[in-house]
Amino acid sequence: MYASAVRRSANFTLANGAEIPKLGFGTWKMTKEQAPAAVAHAIKTGYRHIDCAWAYRNEDAVAAGIKKAGVPRSQLWLTSKLWNSFHAPEHVEKALDATLKDLGTDYLDLYLMHWPVAFLNANGSMVPSVRSTGGHPVEKPDLSRDFMATYSVMEEMVKKGKVRNIGVSNFNIRRTSEVVDNSTVKPVVNQVEVNLGVHNEELRNYAHAHGVTLQAYSPFGSNQNVAKYLEDPVVVDVAQRNNLTPAQVLLAWTLGREIIPITKSVTPERIEENFRVLDVELPEEDIKHLTNEALSRPLERTVDPTEGWAVEDAIFEDGIDQTREMELKGGAYVPPPAHESPIEHRLEPRNDPESPSRHFHTAANPLASSSGVRRPTAVQARSSFFRSFATSSRSAAVAEVVPPSASDAPAVSESPLLRNTTQSAIATPGLKFVDGEQSIERETKKMNMYTVRSYSTSTITRASVSASSPTASSSSAVKVKEARKYPAKKSFLYEKYLRLLTDSQMVLVLQHNNLSVAELAKVRSDIEAIKLPEGQTSKASLTVVRAGLIKAAVRQLASGGKSATMENLQPALSGPIALLTCETLTPAYLSALFNVVDRALGHAPPRAPALGAKFPETAVANPRLVPLAAVLEGNRLLQVPQTRDVGRIGSLDQLRAQIVGLLSAPGQQLAGVLQFNAGKLTIRAPCQGVGHGALYHSQSVEQFFMPVPGLKVVLPRSPIQAKGLLAASIRDENPVVFLEPKILYRSSVEQVPVDDFTLPLSQAEVVKSGTDLTLISWGAPLYACIEALDVLRNPPAAIAKHFPQGVRSANVEVIDLRTILPWDRETITKSVAKTGRCVIVHEAPVTAGVGAEIAAHIQQNCFLNLEAPVSRVGGWDTPFPHVGELFYKPESIRIADALVKSLTF
User: Fold this and answer.
1) Does the active-site annotation cover 47?
2) Distance CA 886, CA 876 (A)
3) Tell me: the pLDDT tens digits for 157-181?
4) What one-character DSSP code corresponds to residue 341?
């Protein structure tokens, strides 16, 4: 939760109760000539938090400035950092003593591990690093990964009284979580780069939830970015509206996110200007505005020595942290697609935006003038914020449109259900367009959901391969994407991973959890000790891989012809990954190999006591290696579903049985097993209220399937969604219950691409972007949600007094869940963390349904972000009535009332 007002208090309270000044004065890059005067002036101005480091090589000059200021040591907060050359446990105290001597003090208020990187320093010499012939420091990779050995000595320094608080610096979520989980004295601070180019919002959320306070170095950027950030139009606008300088805005934004900024200047005027930020309060709206601006920007790190130091493991692991954070909460994080405008929705976002084409919009008449200027549709003209959500966020192209014979300004039906489709879409004979990515001519056909129901069964099942976009014609050659160019070190690893994937008869994907160097060496030695069969010369190998590079290698192989196997392998490649590769597929050798891995999993073999009885097999709670999937002979993917989907960690028994069993079977039996898949089953059924019909045609039954692990439940909202999701369901390896809102069968009409395409399962869609409240629904109630936004903005006169002016302009984010099980926790979590408010709408009773599960997840994972209780609008806790169905279902007034209550809470 953002601090809406940074109070006059000069301190933040750390997790252990210590009071730390909320504004720090940094000394990085200060010369020994500059430091005494700058530090003295800062202390006289009012700064009490001085940030130092051994690596700055100026701590003695900082001490001179402190002495010159004449402020008692007890009134100051002194921070320093352990440099990379002193990570060896026997060198930590020596480095700390050198810092204490230079600063002229007998204790530090805070001691941080400067980087999660250890340099070679065999003799503990007081030098920054030992350089290689290439000019970069020589790393000790084993000590870099085993930073807990270093941190444990820092804990001892607390017990000795030389340090009062300890923490880390430049640690990402994965490494921070390892320290939090395995330490006795918890880290209270993580100092990282935070500015407009490096928002670190995911790390902030994680740290806030685990009692770690973030400190921000380079809050203005560094060198090349300072002028750009201080002159940024958004920053300047906020500064002018609040009568602040741009520098004060960036500092106040950082403080408003409850992050301690570390300022640095040697100019007295700027030192004083920065300190005055403690006297101002930046409105919460501006804090959110600047945060959203930072979130929308590409990453621009000013400090990342990964390449310069030539370290083996990426320091920040950009692109992995978000996945890691959400895995800690029970899922994988996939950012929702960005929507540039709440009223613009292309059928194919992949197209070149510079191509001369007209937009395709299914909400109403897609006509455009000959000048190429897009005219607003009737729906857009009626409500500038209304967004048609009947279209897909996935696929085909913005295109040249064949104009229909309908009027340029079609009449919009006043039916709440048909306002998104209109008579124009129903009358449109069809559209022809050019796929901007592949330059293939395509066409759409008018369909409602009932047509899709019949059409898809006959066409989708004929598709021979899974497609994530419309299939190209046979005459069109699809270009294989060129491999990404990497620097020399990464290129070597990338090519190595490609060889492992292509040359190995078996690739076993393992997730390693806090696997120490010694444990890894033990597993490798056990593998080496396995006797090879006669005639074989190549042993199996265990390789710890970089997630970013292995994903790129798999994507390259997928684009080169192994799509069916490699594309399905990609979801397993998240988190810390190791590959067990083997070129020998002899069952006896594989069985011995699996015994080694099983021991690493923590499963101990039965042992016989004196009386001859056997103790049952035991397993540790946190195994070092977890099997995720295996690729056999390059074209057969075997998975361990209980590892992630169900939340349990299983042994290798299932994978062992599949692989060894397949290899031991006769050729004909093997071919039959490879073709058989019992999981591919899609059950389709109507659901939700329709205004008439038998009782169970009107029930929302999705909640009945929620407790069934391994099952998928899908509920589309429109014809395009129905076709794409149904195609994906039929191809999915798991059983799928595909529920279709019966009321939409004929009332929701769209121009649906005739070609085969799929939409991603288990991925929600952000139908309309917003910043003030998250509105979640699925199926037919989404139409009522859009109506509720109209009511919120323009309430009927009879109830207008219940709608304060302040809420009428609220920017509500609308999310279609689409897949009910497993539902997209990541998109929901990110949205609610951003907006702070949530309303869930569904037709099923409010008790113990899907909405209750979502509300519980939000309460557990976004509690500190919430500004109002999670609200649910659903059916009543009664059987769905034959009479008065419309009064049972959530309608726009009830939903709008819930929105008002949440926004005004």
Assistant:
1) no
2) 12
3) 999 999 999 999 999 999 999 999 9
4) -
Judge whether 56 counts as a catalytic residue: yes
Can you tell me the distance from the alpha carbon of 715 to that of 737, in angstroms, rounded to the nearest whole number? 9
pLDDT at 103: 97
Q: Which residues pair with 241 in a beta bridge?
A: none
Question: Mutual orientation of helices 201-209 and 284-295 as an angle, nearest 10°?
Answer: 120
Q: What is the predicted pLDDT for the residue at 377? A: 33
Residue 19 belongs to domain spanning:
11-318
**Residue 51 annotated as catalytic:** yes
Segment 240-298, tens digit of pLDDT: 999 999 999 999 999 999 999 999 999 999 999 999 999 988 998 899 999 988 988 88
CATH number at residue 292: 3.20.20.100
In sequence order, the β-bridge partners of residue 216 are: 192, 261
As given in the structure block, the two tokens for residue 106 are: 């007998």
- First vs last Cα of the chain: how many Å apart? 15
Does residue 701 lie in a domain region? Answer: no
**Peptide bond preceding 233 in cis form (omega within 30 of 0):** no
Which pLDDT value is given to residue 276?
A: 94
Pairing relation of β-strands 625-632 and 636-639?
Answer: antiparallel
* Cβ-based burial of 867 (10 A; exposed 0-12, middle 13-18, buried ≥19): middle
Q: Tell me whether residue 170 is in a domain.
A: yes
**What's the mean pLDDT in 517-521?**
78
Pick the catalytic residue: 49, 51, 824, 857?
51
CATH of the domain at 646: 3.30.70.1730
Domain annotation covers residue 885: no
Q: Which residue has the tokens 């330490």?
A: 183
Output the six-digit token pair for 98. Answer: 């050198």
Confirm if 249 and 238 have CB atoms less than 8 A apart.
yes
Which band of pLDDT confidence, cut at 50, 70 and 90, is reported for residue 668? Answer: very low
Residue 879 has what DSSP assignment?
P
Q: Is the pLDDT of residue 7 over 70?
A: no
CB neighbour list of residue 364: distance below 8 Å, 6 or more residues apart: 377, 378, 379, 380, 388, 410, 412, 422, 424, 425
State the pLDDT at residue 802.
86
**How many domains would you assign to the chain?**
2
Closest CA to 826 of 785, 854, 792, 847: 854
Spot the catalytic one: 49, 87, 114, 345: 114
Residues 752 and 741: their CA atoms lie apart, in Å, by 18
Report how far residue 48's alpha carbon sits from residue 314's, in angstroms, rounded to the nearest whole number: 34
Helix H segments across 764-891?
781-793, 805-808, 825-835, 850-861, 885-888
> 540, 527 in Cβ contact below 8 A?
yes
| pLDDT (0 to 100) of residue 834 | 93
CA distance 522 to 517: 9
Q: For residues 420 and 747, is the Cβ–Cβ distance under 8 A?
A: no
For residue 475, is it within any domain? no
* Tokens representing residue 534 in the block: 């006669």
- The last residue of a domain, from among 295, 318, 341: 318
E strand spans, 219-370:
260-263
Instruction: Out of 22, 47, 56, 603, pick the active-site residue.
Output: 56
Confidence band for 756, pLDDT divided at 50, 70 and 90: confident
Beta strand 636-639 with 682-687 is unpaired
Please tell me the distance from the alpha carbon of residue 105 to that of residue 97, in angstroms, as a whole number.
10
| pTM, to two decimals | 0.43
Given 22, 41, 49, 81, the catalytic residue? 81
What letter does residue 799 receive in the DSSP assignment? G
Q: Residue 79: what residue type?
A: T
- Domain end point (choices 300, 318, 336): 318
